[in-house]
Amino acid sequence: MIITYPHMGEAYIAVKGIFDNLGIKSIIAPFTTEDTLRLGSRESPECVCLPFKITLGNYIKSIEAGADTIVITGSCGPCRFGYYGPLQKQILQDMGYDVDFIIIDPPKENPLDFLHNIKKLSNGKTSKAIKSIYDAYKVCIEIDKLNEIQYYVRPRTKNKSIINNIMYNFKREVLDAHGTKEIIEVIKATGNKLLSIPIDKNTKPLKIGIIGEIYTIIEPFSNLNVEERLGNMGAEIHRSMTIKHWAENNLIMPATGRKGYKMEKRLSNPYIPVLIGGHTQQCIGHAINYANLNYDGLVQIYPMTCMPEIVSRTILSQIEKDYNIPILYLIVDEQVGEAGYQTRLEAFVDYLRERKYNHKLSEKF
Amino acid sequence: MKRIGIPRGLYYYKYYPFAKIFLTELGAEVVLSPETNKEILDIGSKYCIDDACLPVKVYHGHVYFLKDKVDYVLIPRFTSISAKEYICPKFGGLPEMVRYSIPMNSPIIDIEINLYKNKFNLYKSLFSLGNMLGANPIQIKKAINKAFKTHYVYKKDLLNGNLPAVLIENKKPVKIKTKSIVGIVSHPYLLYDSFINMNLLKKLSGRCIKYITPEMIDSQIIDNLCNELEKRIFWSSSKELIGSALYMMNINRIEGILLLTSFACGIDSLSLELIIRIANKIYNKPIMMLTLDEHTGEANFNTRLEAFMDLVERRQNLDNNLSPYGRGIYCSERNIR
């Protein structure tokens, strides 16, 4: 059994840690490129959302590299993600690939299935599996810290290419590291390297929050590196949802008897009182949270035809008025041309800068 | 007497008789928006956000028509209409989508219909709506019972092959000499809105083709067929489509299947793909997918539909001539999966 799993931003680091700790052979899908997307979208349904296409491409690439078992999480919520697994399995079988899917549905759906899957994945060492999941959570915490350092340093330093260089080396080193312990060391060392870059502490960059659909804001390929682009334009960004954030609210908190997403639900309640699927409540909650923290602007990113985010977008237009915060809506799909995207981001950043400047002037007089 | 507006869109075709009886029993007047026309579609797509699907845009148009003519507009929040199943996130967020897109004076009644866990929620919502109309609990209970009765009668009528247009709007049923039968797999809000689907049903009747819709298939059969699938389907709208398509594939008399969807329908993008992939393996008769959007030019649509109908007729003629042992040569009786 050679296991593989789709990419979602930095998730591969944590998942690699789990399988390394358990001593299970796994293949990390080659990093997502245009070719991956092309392979995936050729076989995907026409109107399906972007994550479906990219993950399908990931599977094809890893199967060609020798994987025979695909592990993904599932869900039974109203979002389309829950039915990715069965349909992708069907598509891969129709393409002639003989692969096994292990879909880990939430335990409340079918507790026996859940335990069975975990047992199957961990070769019977269930308790060790749970421990390594917790270790992987620690990796996620470190990744978040690393990202936050990057968000802080990038707009404040003059030489942006040093950061790119360090992050590129980081990707290589982390693939060579074995087990969660080594991975955490690599992440910490990279963080220190980033901190040693000379920065200008007096600059006050724009603050931009990134909200939207969880996959497209975490996976840099799908949003055409929006974090890097905004950082290079001199904006300090913050990403509302991360792998750690997801794991904390969906695994750690329910396992210890607490309810996840408390802050988001409280803030979004006046606008959308019930769960309608996807991350609508979280998107709205974070938007309000950022507005309260005096962010200069927000960017909402979601794949075309994403059902929950279409609802959040209509509500965000009201939040824009109520909280007086500009929001840029970016809908991503198969397009990989960067120019249009770059222009819009530049215009948005220019607008925010001008707005902030005018605001300061009016405060002075 | 309070005037309550009901937009003629989305699940109007499923739950209008229920809503009408319930509201009129409690002394409210029900105001319907007109049948969908060009104007409603234009206004809807003007106010609705651009990447929503066609039925949601049309719904916005209907609400816009009603907005200042009534005291309240009834836009229920359909979270779930059967146990452990959702419908679509857009149905759940419908009141919000309308509220923040259309400037309205009449307040929205956004009671939540949520049968995900149990039926208790539905009663709670109906009682709160009744309270709002100033009725006492006994009256409300009576109205609920009567509404449920009507609903079951309506559902049974649909099952027997009647169309909502005949049952709700008292239009005369079209009587035709049936040459062949095709199955149409689609959501009720596309299938029964003759403006959106460019008079599809009339065009089929014009060629003496009878049709079977998902509403004409027993929900028990649909449940059983869907249980054979690998993973349970957790959208009731999608389950209806997949189950009825599987049923139609197994019936010999049905000469072809027409899949009707709207552009950017999230749930159809997966469920119709699943149907087509299953059909590729086990189904040997014509199957065609038609996608609807805001376009109103009928020529392309007609060409495709005519080609499909020609195919159905031609195959049937061939089929009748060449029957080796009492069964059509195109019939398929292999198991699903």
- Beta-strand residue fraction of chain B: 5-15%
Oligomer: heterodimer
> What's the total count of β strands of chain B?
10
| Strand line-up of the largest beta sheet of chain B | 2-1-3-5
Helicity range of chain A: 55-70%
**Structural class by secondary-structure content of chain B:** alpha/beta
* Percent of residues in beta strands of chain A: 5-15%
Question: What structural category arises from helix and sheet content of chain A?
Answer: alpha/beta
Shape of chain B: globular
Annotated CATH topology of the largest domain in chain B: Rossmann fold
Compute the separation of the termini of chain B in Å: 56 Å
Q: Any overview of this molecule?
A:
The complex is a heterodimer of chains A (365) and B (337). With 365 residues, chain A is an alpha/beta fold. Helices cover 58% and strands 11% of the residues of chain A. Chain A has helices at 11-22, 34-43, 50-64, 84-94, 111-121, 126-156, 160-176, 179-195, 214-218, 226-232, 243-255, 262-268, 280-292, 307-323, 339-364; strands at residues 3-5, 26-28, 69-73, 100-104, 206-212, 235-239, 297-303, 327-332. Chain A has a four-stranded parallel beta sheet, with helices on both faces. The termini of chain A are far apart. Chain B has two domains: 3-159, Rossmann fold; 174-321, 3-Layer(aba) Sandwich (Rossmann fold), CATH 3.40.50. Chain B has helices spanning 12-25, 38-47, 54-66, 89-92, 94-99, 120-132, 137-159, 164-169, 188-191, 200-206, 219-227, 236-250, 266-282, 299-321; strands at 3-6, 29-32, 72-74, 77-80, 108-109, 112-114, 180-185, 209-212, 254-262, 287-292. Chains A and B meet through helix 4 and helix 14 of A and helix 4 and helix 13 of B.
